[in-house]
User: What shape does this take?
Amino acid sequence: MKRPVEIAVLSDIHLGTYGCHATEVCLYLNSIAPEILILNGDIIDIWQFRKRFFPKEHLKVIKKIITLASKGTHVYYITGNHDEMLRKFSDATMGNIHLIDKLVLNLDGKKAWFFHGDVFDVSIQHTKWIAKLGGWGYDFLILFNRLLNKWLVSTGREKYSLSKKIKNSVKGAVKFINDFETTATDLAIENKFDYVICGHIHQPAKRLVHNQKGSTLYLNSGDWIENLSYLEYHNRKWSLNYYREIQPKKSHNSSKILLEPRMFKPDILN
Assistant: This one.
């Protein structure tokens, strides 16, 4: 039995790249029955799209999303920088699939602001060719890291993340992430949003942020390249989860998955 979820949020899947964990994405989507699925940008990597590499596992992700929509799930595809070509079709609706640039929902009386986050990235706005070059480099770094980890595991050693090591050790990368999160939360607080939900920086997060004007819950769904992370909203609570931690909840007296149904009808405010 599939696990009921009111809202599931995924971002930065990067279909069409070597680093994408498409099989794991499908396994996760097959495990849930979401009322709303929010794809928060960079789902299809049009920047790095190549005819010779788009395996069937990547196509299965698209097929699964369409299947969910056909069965009643409302799918909101929020455009990101790697799929920015889709922005010319923003506000288009095909059945239960909605293509948009941002989304504001009223969740049980609280305002939630969803957007990818590339609008805050100066490198993309002014030197896009450098950002695209960096995207190619990142993809090949991830591919090399996978080969390295296979060797490490075969020799009885723990896996190692080269990209995380670089991000955590380079001051510029750390500052960019901090600036991104500060900008997003400052704007959310100024505009009276209770939740701000982003992607883009591949850094999963769930943190209550305060400033002199108020507070907001900052959420980042991470990515499906390194972290395999996602957000869920159910029974008035947000949770940040990782694919490797998927464990169905069972009762003590039954093998059936526990269901927690309730009426859930969020209002679209934008």
Observations:
- The chain has one domain: 3-116+167-268.
